[in-house]
Amino acid sequence: xxxxxxxxxxxxxxxxxxxxxxxxxxxxxxxxxxxxxxxxxxxxxxxxxxxxxxxxxxxxxxxxxxxxxxxxxxxxxxxxxxxxxxxxxxxxxxxxxxxxxxxxxxxxxxxxxxxxxxxxxxxxxxxxxxxxxxxxxxxxxxxxxxxxxxxxxxxxxxxxxxxxxxxxxxxxxxxxxxxxxxxxxxxxxxxxxxxxxxxxxxxxxxxxxxxxxxxxxxxxxxxxxxxxxxxxxxxxxxxxxxxxxxxxxxxxxxxxxxxxxxxxxxxxxxxxxxxxxxxxxxxxxxxxxxxxxxxxxxxxxxxxxxxxxxxxxxxxxxxxxxxxxxxxxxxxxxxxxxxxxxxxxxxxxxxxxxxxxxxxxxxxxxxxxxxxxxxxxxxxxxxxxxxxxxxxxxxxxxxxxxxxxxxxxxxxxxxxxxxxxxxxxxxxxxxxxxxxxxxxxxxxxxxxxxxxxxxxxxxxxxxxxxxxxxxxxxxxxxxxxxxxxxxxxxxxxxxxxxxxxxxxxxxxxxxxxxxxxxxxxxxxxxxxxxxxxxxxxxxxxxxxxxxxxxxxxxxxxxxxxxxxxxxxxxxxxxxxxxxxxxxxxxxxxxxxxxxxxxxxxxxxxxxxxxxxxxxxxxx
Length: 619
Ligand SMILES: Cc1cc2nc3c(=O)[nH]c(=O)nc-3n(C[C@H](O)[C@H](O)[C@H](O)COP(=O)(O)OP(=O)(O)OC[C@H]3O[C@@H](n4cnc5c(N)ncnc54)[C@H](O)[C@@H]3O)c2cc1C
Ligand SMILES: *[C@@H]1O[C@H](CO)[C@@H](O)[C@H](O)[C@H]1NC(C)=O
Ligand SMILES: *[C@@H]1O[C@H](CO)[C@@H](O)[C@H](O)[C@H]1NC(C)=O
Ligand SMILES: *[C@@H]1O[C@H](CO)[C@@H](O)[C@H](O)[C@H]1NC(C)=O
Ligand SMILES: *[C@@H]1O[C@H](CO)[C@@H](O)[C@H](O)[C@H]1NC(C)=O
Ligand SMILES: *[C@@H]1O[C@H](CO)[C@@H](O)[C@H](O)[C@H]1NC(C)=O
Ligand SMILES: *[C@@H]1O[C@H](CO)[C@@H](O)[C@H](O)[C@H]1NC(C)=O
Ligand SMILES: *[C@@H]1O[C@H](CO)[C@@H](O)[C@H](O)[C@H]1NC(C)=O
Ligand SMILES: *[C@@H]1O[C@H](CO)[C@@H](O)[C@H](O)[C@H]1NC(C)=O
Fold this sequence. Notes:
By secondary structure, the chain is α/β, with parallel strands linked by helices. It contains 18 helices and 26 strands. The protein has a domain of 294 residues: FAD/NAD(P)-binding domain. The longest helix is centred in the last third of the chain and has 19 residues. The chain starts with 13 loop residues before the first helix and ends with a helix. Bound molecules: flavin-adenine dinucleotide and 2-acetamido-2-deoxy-beta-D-glucopyranose (8 copies).
């Protein structure tokens, strides 16, 4: 049942011993990882039992489990190794927030080896800004570029999912084994954290700990950002006490230092590539076609039989004996379905694409959570101020290299969840209150995130950044085609703030941010007056205007190939991930989430991938 107890594990096939591609990971030769090059395909026609399109977060998890069953699996991934293509920026947690890949602005710096360079349509609800929406193009996919927070959603959210798709497999109780199976948990290392005012309790019972657990490492960072300790107090002062169990037990209420996908041993990023792929390629018949773009799913009648692909100009066909599994992410999975004839009939016909299955929901139902912040100066250091302090870099590097501690070992952070308190709710319209009342009773409406930037002499060493994310967006966006080719980017419209309820929630959450900053608890650490947006912004209209100009995505877009029961009503896949109206085709990734979950999704996406792999294998 567990990967590492698989009989194949540890026995390198003889061919794998012959040639190795040595990949230098991070900073030291001792961290070098030897990858058997015979697990990487030479371009050319090939046949596999299963073809997985997209070697990302979900894709590598599904592919690895299928391969561990003895099946042959071909993975089609447009990118290569992020350790090579992006080095420390992707590997070292402390650098995660400085990676230019995160830039959400129209004039983003292109990183074509790592990112799909997607730019959204102008967001009419957000001052017509075009948003750069980062999406990992590398083995590991977006798990290789995300900001590493890893936790689970609420019991009520999973129950809602189960109810919507008519399958009890998605309840908390039934998903728990997949959360456990996908991860290895390491408790906090208090000696390395070395911050007595930042201790906490947590719930180990919902994890597997030790050496025989799942592929993705989940741990608490080996360093505490001092500014976080003050944000924790400020949030407590407005009613968000510190949780005694953390955010992995199905309850999101109050605050906590978050668990993250960091291997605590050397404080490097744990991704689906380091977790799943590296195990699979040593002991299974998984074959990765890297730098290879899937262009079209091939059908015989309504049965998916293969994928047409292209590696650096070499076009060829991969044939699937059993199934094609699409894990290309929220933007590219619906695009690939549509160019292959699966999607809204009229839209496909207008581009001359023959329709194989008329599914109106493909590309629709895009959920996207936005966030924005209030900033003030802080006297205390933060991760950002530490990393900006040139004089300290040798010390921090030594801490990181000698025992995986110090600011480079951590990506943050302290986060907190709440349903808006009664005083805030009273200001909401009846319509918004009614919409919110339909959500599960344990659904947190707002998430708060403690962040930082380096400060200045006049505003303190740290520019403290306290953000709020709207976790119950009622606006919907879509992904549509401009052409019948995968070589053209899809059109992305997140629909930000198109539903007035989201604007009301944003204004209410903004006021909570100011309350937290204004609490006496954080006063001893504060310097000066509010930096952003500043005291001139007071009326609801001013606040909303600030949010329209400043809000960005929290990168959790999902829902564009929604799981459900009724294709005519917009469902694209059933509870097993099977695409309606065709055979031999599934989608497994963030696009199948029927709605955006509260909090950060990667833990759920790994669990989903494990669950669907189980379903494919008939377990
Ligand atoms: C900047 C950022 C920060 C984030 N921070 C967090 C966080 O802190 N915590 C958290 O839980 N979540 C976070 N997320 C969200 C989370 O990481 C994603 O939701 C999740 O990784 C998506 O997984 P996926 O399997 O759906 O897609 P991906 O992991 O993106 O995988 C899709 C893969 O398919 C490949 N692909 C696409 N099209 C093709 C094609 N035509 N041919 C071949 N290959 C193709 C891509 O290259 C990619 O490897 C963040 C996301 C971003 C962008
Ligand atoms: C990053 O990479 C370089 C080598 O390319 C190395 O010298 C350095 O120590 C690395 N680590 C960090 C944390 O910057
Ligand atoms: C590869 O497969 C395609 C489609 O099945 C076929 O047309 C082509 O001739 C094959 N190429 C080679 C080199 O076998
Ligand atoms: C907690 O301790 C750290 C030093 O270890 C300090 O920088 C920080 O200001 C303290 N936080 C609070 C809230 O006292
Ligand atoms: C927070 O904790 C304090 C002290 O333990 C308690 O009095 C208060 O009721 C708690 N608040 C909430 C919202 O749970
Ligand atoms: C980690 O290494 C640093 C630098 O060498 C050292 O100062 C610190 O005491 C070490 N911490 C632990 C917990 O070993
Ligand atoms: C909201 O609904 C209540 C009754 O449920 C009503 O009394 C009140 O006038 C409504 N408020 C608005 C602003 O419509
Ligand atoms: C996509 O969303 C935009 C903005 O809401 C809307 O104008 C457009 O009609 C939508 N397209 C489709 C095909 O649904
Ligand atoms: C800040 O706190 C003071 C006193 O504690 C209060 O009078 C004021 O209204 C608060 N302002 C905000 C924006 O919460």
